[in-house]
Amino acid sequence: MPPHRPKGHGKPKNIKQTVLRILSYIKGYRLLMAFALLCIMFSAAAGIAGTYFLKPLINDYILPFIGHKNPEYTISNDLGDRKGIMSEKGVTAGFKSAKKQGCRIVVIDLDEHVRCLDPFMLSKYISRRKEDFTSCVITDCYVVFCGRAVRINARYQSRKEIESKLKKLKP
């Protein structure tokens, strides 16, 4: 027994006549068909344009941060990392962590954990990181306390100069 074939399926005998017959059914809907084709072309163009609009965003704002764990700030086109240290002794770990993350700026935020600022001790720990500044691995350090901030660069400042800057943060 030959395999059963359902009727109505398969290739039409005369393709040209079949296409013309289908087009004759659509004849009354020419305007709607033109509008539908126009919408399809607009949708395709919008999809392509969207890709081209995203390209500069990805290249300028996402790719620079790939490989940098947890960058939090962009300051003067350099990556900066916020370190909420518990005491002055946390400066060393904060700098090491920022270097490991590829950040060139360290923001030491004392507002969260430190109740009383000790400018002498803090300047001592920051000035110990002088090698990070002179090798240009770290370009700047910002210290934030009580909603105020000072910029420190141990490459150009002595421990005493750093201490006097930190005293400006005291309420």
Give the gist of this structure.
By secondary structure, this protein is an alpha/beta fold.
- Give the overall average pLDDT: 83
Gyration radius (Cα, Å) is: 33 Å
CATH architectural category of the largest domain: 3-Layer(aba) Sandwich
Order of helices and strands: HHEEHEHHEEH
Per the CATH scheme, the topology name of the largest domain is Trna Endonuclease, Chain: A, domain 1
Which stretches are low in confidence, meaning pLDDT under 50 for 5 or more residues running? none
Largest sheet: 5 strands, mixed
Structural class call reads alpha/beta
Distance between the termini: 100 Å
Total tally of structural domains: 2
Number of H/I helices: 6
Helical residue percent band? 40-55%
Tell me, what's the shape?
Answer: rod-shaped
CATH C-level class of the largest domain is Alpha Beta
- Number of strand elements: 5
- Strand order across the largest sheet: 1-2-3-4-5
β-strand amount: 5-15%
Structure in words:
The protein is an alpha/beta fold and 171 residues long. The chain has 2 domains: 15-63; 70-167, Trna Endonuclease, Chain: A, domain 1 (3-Layer(aba) Sandwich), CATH 3.40.1350.120. It contains 6 helices and 5 strands; from the N terminus they run H-H-E-E-H-E-H-H-E-E-H. It has helices at residues 15-26, 30-62, 90-100, 119-127, 130-134, 159-167, and strands spanning 73-75, 78-83, 105-109, 140-145, 148-152. Strands 1-2-3-4-5 form a 5-stranded mixed sheet, with helices on one face. The chain is rod-shaped and about 95 Å long. The termini are far apart. The model has no long low-confidence stretch (mean pLDDT 83).
